[in-house]
């Protein structure tokens, strides 16, 4: 299983990367939308985690732009420091079925990915 984390916040990205590594997921990271575009053209991902507020893009808009480059089996999840109902609604409109609030809960992450065993 392979995941891409697109987040410009180093600490948030590293924490999530560590959690995914404990779940035996191969993880790639991108600091920007431009870097994410480069990676999706080279690699296939099962999950892409998008920060809503990137320096060069809005997460929901980035999902729409990345989707044509992703396999049909790729799932998108939004990761945000806000738990606003407007964001959840916008995510659903663009086909993002999961919204995680920072800091990400390890159990929620494992459940979202359908991985048993969890994170210690």
From TrEMBL:
InterPro entries: Bact_response_regulator, CheY-like_superfamily, Sig_transdc_resp-reg_receiver. This is Response regulatory domain-containing protein. It comes from the Bacteria. PANTHER family: RESPONSE REGULATORY DOMAIN-CONTAINING PROTEIN, STRESS RESPONSE REGULATOR PROTEIN 1. The modification 4-aspartylphosphate is found at residue 51. Signal peptide: none annotated. SUPFAM superfamilies: CheY-like. Residues 2-117 form the Response regulatory domain. Keywords: Phosphoprotein. GO terms for biological process: phosphorelay signal transduction system. Pfam families: Response_reg.
